[in-house]
Design a protein that fits this description.
Elements lengths: L2 E5 L4 H13 L3 E5 L5 H7 L9 E4 L2 E4 L1 H11 L10 H32 L4 H4 L9 H6 L2 H10 L4 H24 L9 H13 L6 H4 L3 H9 L13 H6 L9
Parallel strand pairs: 1-2
Antiparallel strand pairs: 1-3, 3-4
The structure holds glutathione (GSH).
Glutathione (GSH) binds next to helix 1, helix 2 and helix 4.
């Protein structure tokens, strides 16, 4: 089995795909792409959509973190990414879908909003990436890309305020799944990788990490995703954090 995985540095579903390939023991070559510039490249590579993660495995194109999880499970069933038993599998798939459709975009919007506010933090997410240009140059030329990505992902002030307000409820939901045994089992599932990587991206924000890291979801994310690049200092307005029940950790 030979695989090429196309990613964007700091992209949480890209990290999920990478961890699932590694969990399955599939050797792969990682191709780092610059955000936004990735879109035409993926189209040129004949992927149906313009998003990462995108995988070419034995000549087959598989795009999207959930699709990649399924393709890997089919090609190499051990160790499993989904539990045996229809009811348990359905519960894990429901959590995985929620992670992909709801939590993942919240973490993405918050990241682009914060990067637009301080583009210099972009470099921290690209640690170890091979972008074909020196990191310093990539960071210097990044502002238009960041603005484009923030616009494309609709990372408006109103959206970010709503995301921050919704976040405590979302974290409660993940904690409840852990309590029920749907997430955070001994063997990591596709849903753990899907949700754990979004939680890890959220934990790169100084504003959010203290409220997350000691919760069950924070512990699960650290275990399933031992390392995740990136660091953003205080970024969100104090009153938005106060509204969201995420305790502000600084005075501003
Ligand atoms: N939910 C999908 C979508 C992934 C997605 O939107 N990925 C972002 C990066 S996190 C992307 O490709 N953005 C386009 C770009 O950066 O050019 C998945 O899990 O694969």
């Amino acid at each position: 089995m030979s695989a090429r995985l196309f990613v964007v540095p700091g992209s949480h579903p890209s990290v999920a795909a990478r961890l699932m390939l590694e969990r399955k023991g599939v050797p792969y070559r990682r191709v780092d792409l610059v955000p936004m510039v990735a879109k035409p490249i993926l189209r040129a590579l004949r992927f149906p959509r313009a998003t990462v993660p995108a995988l070419i495995v034995d000549g087959r194109r598989v795009q999207g973190s959930r699709e990649i999880a399924r393709a890997l499970e089919e090609a190499r069933p051990e160790p499993p990414l989904y539990p045996a038993g229809a009811a348990r599998r359905r519960a894990v798939e429901d959590a995985e879908r929620w992670g992909d459709e709801l939590l993942q975009p919240v973490a993405r919007r918050l990241a682009w909003w914060a990067l637009r506010r301080d583009p210099s933090t972009l470099g921290s997410y690209a640690e170890g990436a091979r972008l074909g240009v020196p990191l310093g140059l990539a960071v210097k030329t990044a502002p238009p890309i960041i603005w484009g990505a923030a616009h494309f992902n609709r990372a408006t002030d109103a959206a970010i305020r709503a995301d921050l307000a919704a976040l405590p409820g979302m974290l409660d939901r993940v904690d409840a799944w852990i309590e029920e045994g749907v997430l955070g089992g001994e063997e990591p599932s596709a849903a753990d990788f899907q949700i754990g990587t979004s939680i890890r991206l959220l934990m790169t924000f100084d504003d959010l990490r203290p409220a997350i890291e000691s919760r069950p979801c924070g512990e699960m994310a650290r275990r399933v995703v031992p390392s995740f690049p990136g660091h953003v200092g205080p970024a969100f307005p104090r009153e938005w954090l106060a509204e969201s029940a995420i305790p502000p950790v600084r005075s501003k």
